[in-house]
# Entry
Amino acid sequence: MSPSAAVPDPTAGEERRKRRLALLGGSLGNLVEWYDWFVYASFAIYFADSFFPGDNPTTQLMNTAGIFAVGFLMRPVGGWILGRAADRHGRKSALTLTVTMMSVAALLIAVAPTYGQAGYFGALVLLLARLLQGMSIGGEYAASATYLTEASARDRRGLGSSFQYVSMTCGQLLGLAILITMQHTLTTAQLESWGWRIPFVLGAFFAVVVFWLRRRLQETDAFQEESAGDEAHDDSARGTLKALWQYRRQAVLVMALTLGGTVAYYTYTTYLTKYLVGSAGMAKTTATLVSFTALTVFAVLQPFAGMLSDRIGRRPLLITFAVGCTVGTYPIMTALGSASSYWSALGLSLLALVIITGYTSINAAVKAELFPTRVRALGVALPYAIANALFGGTAEYVALWFKDSGHETMFFWYVSGCALISLVTYVLMPDTRAVALSRAEADADAAAGAGTAAKPVEAVR
# Structure
C-alpha cells in the first residue's frame, strides 16, 4: 500500500463536511420558508369564510386566492432588496434575514381577527402578512438557489441545487401532514373556527429554530473570493440594477424559462387539492391524501433528476418537461376532473409531477449558472420573482376565474401555452452545465485547456 493511499486527505474531508453542512442548513431553512408560504394555500379551504362573508364557496376561495396572488407582487420587491443584500453582504446574511421576516408574517396570520370580530380588518392583516411573506420568499429563492449552487461541487451542482425543490416540497408536505393530522383529530367546525391558526403558530416557531441554524452557516467560496479579489470593476456596483442591466439578456432568459415551469408547478401543487374537491367532487380528506402522496414521490425524484443533469446537461431535461407539459396538460387535467378514486387521481398527479421534475430539479442551477458572482443573487431573484408574480402567483386565481365563468377547460390551454413559450426558450438557449462559477473553476479550466467549456467564465468576474 502506498503512503498516499494510507493517509486520508484531511482537506478533502473538511471540504465534504462543509458542503454537507451547507446543503443541510440551506435546505432546512428553505423548507421552513416554503412551509409558511404554502400552508396558507393548504388551509385556505378552512379559513376562507372567516375573513370573507358570503354563501358562495368559490367566491370565498377566489378572495383568499387573490390575497395569495398579491403576495407574489411583493416577490420582485423582495428579490431586488434581498438579492442586492446577498450580492453585497453575502448569501448567509440574506438567508438569515428572509427567515426572520417569514416568522413575523406567520405570527401575524396566526393572530389575525376574523370578519365577525373586526370586519375586514382581519382581511387587511392577512394581506399585510402575505405581502411580508412575499418579500421574504422573493429573497429566499435567490439566496438559497445561489447558496446551494455555489456551495456544491462543480460536477454535482445539478444534484445540490435539486435540494431547493426537495426542501420546498418537504415544506409543503409538512403543512399537508399537519393538515391531515388535524383533519383526523379535529372536527370540521373546530378547524374552521380556530384549528387553522395552529400551523401558522408552528411556522413562526420553526422559523426561530432555523434562524439559529442559519447564523452558523459558512459563506460560499465564490462570494468570499469576489469580496476579497482585486477586480478592476467598481465593487460598489455589486448587486445593483445597473450591474444587472449588463446581463439583461440573461434576465429575460430567466423570465422566459420560468414561465412554463412556475405555472405548471402551482397548478399541480397548490391548486391540485382545490381542483379535486371543487371539480372532481372528491372529499377534502381524500384530495389532501392524494396531494401528500404525490408530493412525497415528487420530492424523492428531484435529486435523481439533478444527478442526471450533471451527466447529460440541463437542456434535455428542460425540453422534456416543456414538451410533456405542452401536450399533456389538457388530457391530464381533464382526466383528473373526472377522477373518482384515490388511486386514479394519484396516478394522474404523479404523471404530471414526473413531467414537471424536468424543470424543478435543475432550474435553480440553470439560473445561477447564467450570472457572474457579483450579480448572481439579484440576477436570479428579480426576473424570477417578476415571472412568478405575473404567472405563478396568479395561476390558482386564473384557474378559479375560468371555473367561475363556466370555461374551466380554458385554463388547461393556458398552462399548455405557457409551457410552449418556455419550450422555445429551452431549445434556443445554451446548456449551462460546464460554466465556471468561481475564479478557481475558471483557472482549472484554463489549466486543463478546456477552451469551449470555459468560454462563459467571463461572467465570474
